[in-house]
Write a structure and sequence with these properties.
about 180 residues, Hypothetical Protein Pfu-838710-001, alpha+beta, about 45% strand, eight-stranded antiparallel barrel, 4 helices, globular
Length: about 180
Amino acid sequence: MKEIEVKVKINNRKEILDKLKELGCTFSEPKLQNDIIFVPAGFTLGQDLKKGINFLRIRKSNNKIIFTLKQPQSNELDCIEKEIEINDAEIMADIIKLLGYQEAVRVNKTRIEIKYQDYTICIDQVDGLGDFIETERLIDETLDQDADKVQEASLVFLESIGVDITHRQDKGYDTLMYIKNNS
């Protein structure tokens, strides 16, 4: 599957949650997510992404450990994504390093997930970065769908619930955190 996201920094979290409640959305319980991001040796987050570069993540959340491969396509928030549950984060980290990857950054956040139509909406409090809303749509990667059009539709939806889309972010939390920590 291909995951196409839109991410916007928000300052009106409560208002947005209220609007989503008015739409009849149900909310997950808040869950902690602790991510370790790995990049190919010699690659630095924040530099121009190249299509086909694989980024790896180990996520610990709610007593589960998920290994994820993300491969950006047209932009950093348009990725082929493959995930699998694993049992041992430390062994997986050792394997990743032996494959020629290096740890780039750690990201810790509290996430509330909301389902609405064909969106997964995430309200995130990211340690060190602040509050964000994110829309995610999963698209069959074999279909030739324009990521820009999918992202534009997401922005229209976000505006309709009171999100100021001028605060749109074109980078993932990993890159935003890396830039913050290294500037």
